[in-house]
Fold this protein.
Amino acid sequence: MLSGDLVAVWDVPLSDGVYRVEFAHGTTTGKRIIYVNGQEVMRRDRMFKLVGRESFCVGGGRTRATINIDAVSGFTYEYTLHVDGKSLEKFTSHRAQSSRTWSVHVDGEDCRIVLEKDTMDVWCNGQRMDTTGEFVDNGAETTFTLGEHECCIKAVSSGRKKSGIMHFLLLDGEKIPPTQ
């Protein structure tokens, strides 16, 4: 699968999972190959221009990503990944602010639960969950089931303007700490 031309690896956190992007660049052959989670998504052979950019999609939502290839000096290259038009670092920082993630072990299976704060969509292991939302006295509750287990994401005010709204996951009534 991957040859000795592997030059960069990135992990891209999306609502439907964390995707591993690998980039192989043959500077003597001009070959460029992009893998997402081990699957080849783009291949170009005999590229005479060794710098430039390659665009592709990541995840079930087909999020746009671009690898930039820049010459640093001589035959040394720098590779950067942009996701949704932002550097991976800025994209990841924005995702951390606009979503909340929890990791739980339920019925012998590891589950990654993601709340998209702007839409209140809930994802579990890449699948969008059927949810019911309702306003309660001190905020809002979004409920869904995970197998035979009742889950509730509570959104409550922190009481401080800088902190804003806090989100908590309850699994069968037990509070689950968020994943960092």
Q: What stands out?
A: The mean pLDDT is 90. Residues 140 and 155 are 5 Å apart (CA to CA).
